[in-house]
Write a structure and sequence with these properties.
heterodimer, A: about 525 residues, alpha/beta, 7-stranded mixed sheet, 6-stranded mixed sheet, 23 strands, B: about 375 residues, mainly alpha, about 70% helix
């Protein structure tokens, strides 16, 4: 298809896709309420909205995954009924989901072939894939197995897989949430180029500056209804946010006069072999987090953040107990439970399956981290009222929205579940909090709540360590920022020193040489 | 038209209860067809199988006798299965428990040992079963060996080991060369409820096991740990639970229960150690565990139902001249349907009528 021409052939006098009065009802919930949307050829169109605003429902309808209860879709002026993604693909609609659907043990080419009609031979697909990835500046080796690839590379597979269908409309769901600023910039170049070829891009995001920079049009949804369609470049981030949330978002406020006390979490020359052969080797990671401050760890995922989190939480034990000190006590060889008893708390990156058991109730998920030190267990018996009370407290303090008092974790939206998980730990008033990707894939309102809670917690004297790929987030809340690259941690930069450019370079491993020392450091700066 | 499986948002409790019942119904239909092929009247055959045993005291007692080991073993296995740990070798642990307990009965045979003999035999049976079950657990934790294979293969080791003992060192000198130990003394025998009846004290132990397991799974932190390791292993590790310890624990508990069931069977209904002490209780208990939804109360009901198929099979063999192996076919079909119907709990079936039609394009 690429051989034909990169230009797509669509009449530009009418919208490519028109949604007219689309409604979708789930039981008593009206997820989409008479939404109108017009997507024009050669346009990057943002779909903005909080979690639960109806963005996902709308794009699922456009992609044929679910059928609307009312309204109609028009494709180049013709009414269409989409009963499945294959029909949407046949029209020229492709979608890249936020959560990748890739088989880890298969190669890039095998993964791509699986998503295509069977008419084409494997070798033809591999060749076309290589050509396409080269042509669009999305480098990919078709023979590599997916588990070897970084998140950014995995996203490239999804994008190339979508481009293989030569789509007229490409839907992207929160694509930059896993990328470094530089990677995001590369993606924007690709998207601009696709637009130049006459394709339409429907871009779902909640990052307002990104939308302002990239998108020609923005449609804003709130509570299932369309609020406005506007030109984001003529709006301010604040005005967009107001339309999204329906009120001013409370700016995250630093508490003035936050006193910094003694180091409460000390990491000293922590080295750790990876658990599995594909993991990252931690090399002499050192860092001090004092009570009252928030230290950020930036970096592209897969550079040892998971290993560091596991070593700090106690999911992996380290040989030298003194390489991790929690409130001056050696903790490197203590179990997760013992570390919690020392007053530490942890929030892992994965909400489902790591931070919570998806199919268990919230009360059981409160027990998951609370059994160590929250009076929820008495002589081996679970105190059920205590676990429910913990759920209620978290619900109230963090405005967790859910359909009933004690639902399964998986039934909560991402933002609400994240508020629950972070709240669950914060309400234990930990002395040390290690949190990984606190607002990954979370809407603006929930993200603001969580960040404010972290700042307030630090103000109460807790040492907070935040591992994040979101530089805006770190800039907003961290007092100092260090960068992780190839298992090494740079010296922390103060918030003032930590410009995007400097961090971006450190994240890419460049400009991080330091004078050779006894270890002959190759890449990163020691702390 | 097309049938598709759709993932359910929340698990359906109604289906969780209905699923085993649907499985039983489908099994009855299938077995009815089998009877018809064999030239028997399906309705009459099913009545012999499932209704007749419920009509006299002897059969009812016999159902309890058969259900006792099934329930005890299945409760232990369910703890493993909930935690995604696959002990398939309960039959071997049953035999080793029977052998370990019998050792004391053989040693004290004919002496004037007191009433301490039976409790110690039960204890030895439980310990023997637990230790035997720890072998596959150790192999899994230390060497990463699949516990499915190791536990299964150890069944044959146990079976042949027992065979050797009853044909060799433990054979009853007055037993006319039959491969069996001497009849156990009364102090080494599980008492029956009614003089001359068959139902014995093991049934009470099985009920206690069911109650303890209900409390463990529903109320105790250890039950939560077992469920969490099975439901979300990574979250379990984050929670601070050590899954290796849990492998040891669940294998030990299920082995102990199987071993206890073994010695109760030998010291109860059988009365001596001999080859073939079990009609495959350890394997049938796997079906019981799943048919009972890995829930102790469910297992109690399922155990009684499977016991009914054993008794019904015997009655059908006598009165209808159908082979006893039909019971095993029956149980196999049942497990097949139970596992198939389990998909209904996670997925729902939806009929798609409009699929495969071309995209509509009206003006």
């Amino acid at each position: 298809m690429l051989e034909r021409s990169s230009q797509v052939d669509v009449p530009s006098r009418q919208p490519l896709l028109q949604a007219v009065g689309i409604s979708k009802r789930f039981g008593t919930l009206l997820a989409n309420d008479a939404i109108d949307l017009e997507l024009w050829p050669a346009e990057i169109h943002a779909l903005l909205g909080e979690n639960g605003a109806g963005k996902s429902t709308l794009v699922k309808i456009i992609y044929g995954l679910i059928q609307p209860s009312g309204g109609e879709l028009r494709w180049m002026g013709q009414k269409v009924e989409l009963n499945g993604p294959s029909q949407a693909r046949a029209l020229g609609i492709a979608m890249v989901l936020q959560h990748f659907s890739l088989f880890e043990n298969l190669t890039v080419a095998e993964n791509v072939v699986l998503g295509l009609p069977r008419s084409e031979s494997f070798f033809a697909v591999s060749a076309r894939l290589a050509e396409l990835s080269r042509a669009y500046g999305l480098p990919l080796d078709p023979k590599r197995e997916v588990w070897q690839l970084s998140v950014g590379e995995r996203q490239r597979i999804e994008i190339v897989r979508a481009l293989m269908q030569n789509p007229k409309l490409l839907i992207l769901d929160e694509p930059t949430s896993v990328l470094t600023p530089q990677e995001a910039d590369q993606l924007f170049v690709v998207l601009e180029r696709l637009k130049g070829e006459g394709r339409t891009i429907l871009y779902i995001s909640h990052k307002l500056d990104e939308v302002k920079r990239l998108c020609d049009t923005a449609t804003i949804l709130r509570a299932g209804k369309k609020v406005a369609t506007c030109d984001p470049r003529r709006e301010t981030a604040a005005s967009l946010a107001r339309m999204m949330v329906g009120a001013d978002i409370g700016e995250v406020k630093a508490v003035s006069g936050r006193g910094v006390s003694v180091p409460r979490l000390v990491i000293h020359k922590l080295s750790l072999e990876p658990d599995d052969p594909h993991g990252t080797h931690l090399e002499e990671v050192s860092l001090e987090v004092r009570g009252g401050e928030i230290v950020g760890i930036a970096g592209v995922s897969g550079n040892g953040q998971d290993e560091l989190f596991a070593a700090l939480s106690g999911e992996r034990l380290v040989e030298d107990a003194k390489s991790i000190l929690i409130d001056h006590r050696p903790a490197g060889s203590l179990s997760v439970t013992d570390r919690r008893r020392l007053g530490a708390a942890f929030v892992p990156e994965e909400r489902l399956g790591h931070g919570t058991a998806p199919r268990m109730k919230l009360s059981e998920n409160a027990l998951l981290t609370g059994h160590a030190a929250s009076g929820m267990v008495n002589k081996g018996f679970v105190n059920k009222p205590a676990t429910l009370a913990a759920v209620d407290r978290t619900t109230q303090a963090f405005d967790v929205r859910k359909a009933k008092r004690d639902p399964e974790a998986v039934s909560l939206s991402g933002g609400n579940l994240q508020k629950f998980i972070v709240g669950r730990e914060i309400l234990r008033e930990p002395g040390v909090l290690v949190v990984s990707q606190p607002t990954w894939g979370v809407d603006a309102g929930a993200a603001a709540t969580i960040r404010q809670a972290l700042i307030d917690l630090a103000a109460r004297g807790t040492a907070v360590l935040v591992v994040s790929q979101d530089l805006d987030e770190l800039a907003e809340i961290a007092d100092r920022i260090a960068v992780m690259f190839h298992g090494r941690l740079s010296a922390p930069l103060s918030a003032a020193e930590a410009t995007r450019e400097r961090l971006g370079l450190l994240m890419g491993g460049a400009n991080a040489e330091r004078p050779a020392d006894e270890h002959g450091a190759k890449h990163a700066v020691g702390a | 038209m097309q049938l598709v499986l759709e993932r359910r948002a929340e698990r359906s409790t109604a289906i969780a209860i209905a699923s085993p019942l649907i499985a039983v119904a489908l099994t009855l239909v299938t077995v009815g067809i089998l009877f018809a092929i064999m030239g028997k009247n399906p309705i009459a055959a099913l009545i012999v199988y499932f209704i007749d045993p419920l009509t006299d005291s002897y059969s009812l007692q016999e159902i309890a006798v058969k259900a006792t080991p099934l329930v005890m073993i299945a409760v232990g296995l369910s703890l493993c299965y909930i935690a995604n740990i696959w002990n398939i070798g309960a039959e071997g642990q049953f035999i080793v428990g029977a052998v370990c307990g019998s050792w004391l009965a053989v040693r004290t045979n004919g002496t004037d040992a007191g009433s301490w003999v039976l409790p110690v035999m039960l204890l030895l049976g439980a310990i023997g079963g637990a230790l035997y079950a720890l072998i596959p657990a150790l192999c899994r934790v230390r060497f990463g060996a699949s516990e499915i294979l190791t536990s299964l293969m150890l069944v044959y080791v146990a079976d042949l080991g027992m065979d050797y003992l009853v044909r060799g060192p433990w054979r009853d000198p007055k037993g006319l060369n039959f491969p069996t130990t001497a009849e156990f003394d009364p102090v080494a025998t599980v008492p029956t409820f009614i003089e001359g009846g068959r139902m014995h004290g093991g049934a009470v132990i099985a009920l206690v096991v069911v109650m303890l397991a209900t409390v463990l799974l529903g109320r105790m932190i250890m039950g939560f740990e077992i469920r969490l390791v099975g439901a979300a292993p990574r979250a379990a590790r984050f929670s601070g639970f050590n899954s290796d310890n849990l492998v040891y624990l669940t294998f030990a508990v299920s082995g102990a229960l199987a071993g206890l069931a073994g010695i109760i069977e030998v010291a109860g209904p059988v009365g001596h150690l001999q080859p073939n002490i079990s009609p495959g209780y350890g394997f049938t208990a796997i079906i019981v565990a799943f048919l009972g939804r890995l829930n102790p109360i469910g297992i109690l009901i399922a155990g009684l139902f499977l016991a009914l198929t054993f008794i019904g099979g015997e009655e059908a063999q006598i009165s209808m001249k159908v082979p006893l192996d039909l019971t095993k076919v029956f149980q196999g079909i049942l497990l097949f349907y139970v596992l198939a119907c389990d998909s209904l709990i996670i997925y729902r079936i939806r009929l798609l009528r409009t699929v495969r039609k071309p995209v509509h394009a009206h003006g």
